[in-house]
Amino acid sequence: MKLYTNVLGLEVSQIETVAEQKVKAAIIPVGESTIELLESTSPEGTLAKFIEKRGEGIHHLALRVSNIEQALETLKEKGIPLIDEKPRKGVENTRIAFLHPQGAKILLELVEY
C-alpha cells in the first residue's frame, strides 16, 4: 500500500473486512475509478489460495453496473459462464457477482453501488 500512498500520493478512503469472502479491502479513489487492494484474512480463503498458486498481482477487474440482476440474466442468456448466479455482499455496501475467467481470460466482477 505504501506505493499508492507514499509514492503516488493517493489516499485510502476506507478499509473494510468482508468476513464472507475472507478478505480485508483498502479502497483508494483515483478520479472516477477506484483501486481496491485486497488482503486475505485466512489461509483457507479464495484470495490466499489464488496467491499461493499464482503469486501476487492483479486478481480481477471490476465493472460497475446499474442493475446487477439484469446484467447477470443477460450474460447467462448469452452463454457467459458465471461463478455467481445471484449477487452477494461486497465492500462499501455494494452487491457483487463474479463471471468465470474462462469467458474473458480474466476474472471479472460486476459491482452494483
Automatic annotation (TrEMBL):
Q: Which residues cross the membrane?
A: none
Q: What Gene Ontology molecular-function terms does this entry list?
A: metal ion binding; methylmalonyl-CoA epimerase activity
What keywords would UniProt list here? Metal-binding
User: One Pfam match, by short name?
Assistant: Glyoxalase_4
In the record, biological process GO terms are:
L-methylmalonyl-CoA metabolic process
Q: Which residues form the VOC domain?
A: 1-113
Residue runs in coiled coils? none
**What protein family is recorded?**
Belongs to the methylmalonyl-CoA epimerase family.
Check the record and name the NCBIfam families matching this protein: metmalonyl_epim (TIGR03081)
Extract the PANTHER family matched here.
METHYLMALONYL-COA EPIMERASE, METHYLMALONYL-COA EPIMERASE, MITOCHONDRIAL
Q: What is this protein identified as?
A: VOC domain-containing protein
Organism per entry? marine sediment metagenome
